[in-house]
Amino acid sequence: MTQYLSAEDILGADDLKPQPVAVPEWGGTVLVRGMTGTERDRFEASVMDDKLSGVAREKLLENYRARLAAACMVDESGKRMFRSDAEARRLGEKSGIALDRVAEVASRLSGLSDDDMEELTGN
User: Fold this and answer.
1) If you write DSSP's letter for every residue of 95-114 in order, what string do you get?
2) What is the pLDDT of residues 38-52, one digit of tens each?
C-alpha cells in the first residue's frame, strides 16, 4: 500500500541540506545549499527581459557563476552569506575555477540543468 504525504509532511521535510564544498583557492570549505522554489523563480526572473517575454542573454551570462554561488552559499546557521547584487558582483571578481566549483554544486542542488539553460536562452 502506498503511503501518501500530507501537507504537514511536505512542509516539515528538511529538504535543503547544505553540502560542504572544498575551495582550496579560498583556503577552506563553504556550505552550498540548493535554492528554494521561490529563490529559483527569483533567480530565473532576474535574467528575463524587461517585458518578461524572454531571456536577455546579457543578463543571463553576466556574472552568472557568482550570482548562482551567491544565491546558494550559506553560513553554518543556513543563512545566505551574500545577499546583495553588489556582493555578488564582488564575488564575481574571485577565481573563476573556485566559482565554477561552487556553481556546479549549487546548480545540481537547485535542480538547474543544461536543459534549463537551453530553455532560458532559447538555444
Assistant:
1) -HHHHHHHHHHHHHHHT--H
2) 999 888 877 665 555
